[in-house]
């Protein structure tokens, strides 16, 4: 039985020069539709988590996609019995995910600045066979904070016990020599952190690095819970989702 509330999450790295005006427009439309959640806007793009009745949520997404800059945004969906957010927040920030490295900005329009991505079925196949298609050992690297990892992660994943994502670059520089000759797949909840992480690692000299396209939630959708232990922490009142994308601790 499908629950009443549709939850969406998505992000897109795209250059935005009208963040204040965009904030007002997106907030007004979400408020009118009765949606709750958080939308972050920065010059580097948009990051959003919203919930409400399905018709209202999809109307907001359709409006967003009518802006040519957001045509290709593709929200991930899950369902809940109640809205897992108490209020609506639409904010302008310096970064949609803080790394404190402003030059690390994936170039969605040209794709030249994006790190290579591996989709969920391919990662599952690599983990099944124990190596990538070129025979290299595959290492999964969790880019999330330590308390998130404690809810669940991929079997054998590297966990640097991060307190915040801005600590990630220093950890890469301290450990990058251990990745030589291996294929590294960075991952996070929905893809935004592992995308920046993979790009930073490539610039730091890690030769074979990928981001998990769509993060853990997309992996759950396309590959289930294979090679993953536990649940995935989410930043709302559901707390964590299982491999079936249903709430569960």
How would you briefly describe this protein structure?
This protein is of the alpha/beta class and 249 residues long.
What's the shape?
A: globular
Mean pLDDT: 93
The CATH class of the largest domain is identified as: Alpha Beta
CATH topology type of the largest domain: Oxidized Rhodanese, domain 1
Low-confidence stretches: none
Characterize the main sheet. Answer: 5 strands, mixed
Give helix % range: 25-40%
**Beta-strand content:** 25-35%
Rg over CA atoms: 18 Å
Structural class: alpha/beta
User: How far from one another are the termini?
Assistant: 21 Å
Which CATH architecture of the largest domain is right? 3-Layer(aba) Sandwich
Structure in words:
- This protein has 249 residues and is an alpha/beta fold.
- The chain folds into two domains: 5-92, Alpha-Beta Plaits, CATH 3.30.70; 117-241, 3-Layer(aba) Sandwich (Oxidized Rhodanese, domain 1), CATH 3.40.250.
- Helices cover 28% and strands 25% of the residues.
- The protein is built from seven helices and 14 strands.
- It has helices spanning 19-33, 54-65, 120-129, 146-149, 168-175, 192-203, 215-223, and strands spanning 5-13, 36-42, 45-53, 76-80, 88-92, 117-118, 138-142, 152-154, 158-159, 183-187, 209-212, 228-230, 232-233, 240-241.
- The strands form four sheets. It has a five-stranded mixed beta sheet with strand order 4-1-3-2-5. It has a five-stranded parallel beta sheet with strand order 6-11-10-7-9.
- The longest helix is centred in the N-terminal third of the chain and has 15 residues, at 19-33.
- The two termini are 21 Å apart.
- 42% of the residues are buried.
- The mean pLDDT is 93.
């Amino acid at each position: 039985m499908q629950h009443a509330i549709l939850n969406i999450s998505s992000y897109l790295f795209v250059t935005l020069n009208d963040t204040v005006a965009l904030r007002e427009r997106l907030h007004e439309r979400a408020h009118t539709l009765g949606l709750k959640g958080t939308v972050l806007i920065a010059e580097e793009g948009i990051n959003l988590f919203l919930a409400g009745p399905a018709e209202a949520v999809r109307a907001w997404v359709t409006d967003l996609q009518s802006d040519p800059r957001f045509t290709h945004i593709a929200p991930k969906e899950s369902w809940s019995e109640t809205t897992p957010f108490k209020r609506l927040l639409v904010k302008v920030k310096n970064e949609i995910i803080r790394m404190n490295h402003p030059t690390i900005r994936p170039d969605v329009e040209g794709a030249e600045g994006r790190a290579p991505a591996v989709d969920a079925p391919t990662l599952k196949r690599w983990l099944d066979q124990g190596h990538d298609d070129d025979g290299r050992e595959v290492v999964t690297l969790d880019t999330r904070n330590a308390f998130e990892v404690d809810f669940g992660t991929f079997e054998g994943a590297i966990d640097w016990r991060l307190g915040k994502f801005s600590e990630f670059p220093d950890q890469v520089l301290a450990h990058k020599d251990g990745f030589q000759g291996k294929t590294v797949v960075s991952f996070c909840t929905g893809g935004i952190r592992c995308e920046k992480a993979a790009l930073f690692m490539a610039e730091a000299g890690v030769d074979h690095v990928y981001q998990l396209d769509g993060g853990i939630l997309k992996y759950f959708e396309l590959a289930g819970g294979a090679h993953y232990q536990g649940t995935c922490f989410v930043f709302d009142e559901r707390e964590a989702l299982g491999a079936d994308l249903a709430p569960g601790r």
